[in-house]
From TrEMBL:
Residues annotated as signal peptide: none
The N-acetyltransferase domain, residue ranges: 7-161
UniProt-recorded name of the protein: GNAT family N-acetyltransferase
Domain of life of the source: Bacteria
PANTHER family xref list: GNAT FAMILY, PUTATIVE (AFU_ORTHOLOGUE AFUA_3G00765)-RELATED-RELATED (PTHR43792), N-ACETYLTRANSFERASE DOMAIN-CONTAINING PROTEIN (PTHR43792:SF1)
UniProt-listed InterPro entries: Acyl_CoA_acyltransferase (IPR016181), GNAT_dom (IPR000182), N-acetyltransferase (IPR051531)
Length: 161
C-alpha cells in the first residue's frame, strides 16, 4: 500500500492478532498503549478493518522491506468523539531509535494530505512519551490542547496541510 526506502505499510487485519498481542506484551510498549488479550486484539483489529472499509484509511502493519519482518504499526485513526483524524505509531522495542517511526509517519502524512485530502492530522501523545513527542516535532506537529484519551491525559498535537 505505502512503500518507503526501508519500509512497506499494509492494512492490519485480524490475521495480525498474535503479532499485536506480542507487540503490546512488552512492558515498555504497553506503558503508553496498553496490553491486549487475544480477544481484545481481535476486536481492535476488526474495528481497524471496519475503519478501512468505512473511511478508506486505518492503521497499517509496518514491515521491513529487506526481510518482510513486521516491526510496528503506523497509520490513521478517525476519532468520532473528537471529529479528528489522528496519526499513530507504535514499534517493537528492538526497532526503536532507527528512524522507522518518523519514516513511516512521514509517508502516512503524505498519503493523508495528498490522496486522502485531509486538512489536519492530530497526534495524541500520552504524557511522558518523550520519544513520540520527538517524532511529532520532527514531523512538524505543534501542541494544540490537553485532553484525555482512553482515560489517560495526553497532549494533542496538530499538523495542518
Amino acid at each position: 500500500m505505502i512503500t518507503t526506502e526501508r519500509l512497506h505499510l499494509r492494512p492490519l487485519t485480524e490475521n495480525d492478532t498474535d503479532w499485536w498481542v506480542h507487540l503490546h506484551a512488552d512492558e515498555e510498549v504497553a506503558r503508553f498503549v496498553g496490553r491486549y488479550t487475544p480477544d481484545q486484539a481481535a476486536a481492535r483489529l476488526h474495528a481497524i478493518r471496519r475503519q478501512w472499509t468505512e473511511r478508506g484509511h486505518g492503521l497499517c502493519a509496518v514491515e521491513l522491506r529487506a526481510t518482510g519482518e513486521t516491526i510496528g504499526r503506523c497509520g490513521l485513526h478517525w476519532w468520532e468523539q473528537f471529529d479528528e483524524t489522528e496519526i499513530g505509531w507504535t514499534f517493537a522495542r528492538p526497532h526503536w531509535g532507527h528512524g522507522y517511526a518518523t519514516e513511516a509517519a512521514r509517508a502516512v502524512l503524505d498519503w493523508g494530505f495528498g490522496p486522502l485530502g485531509l486538512d489536519r492530522v492530530t497526534a495524541m501523545i500520552h504524557h511522558g512519551n518523550t520519544a513520540s513527542t520527538a517524532v511529532a516535532r520532527r514531523l512538524g506537529f505543534t501542541p494544540l490542547r490537553e485532553d484525555t484519551v482512553l482515560d489517560r491525559p495526553c497532549t494533542v498535537h496538530a499538523l495542518d496541510r
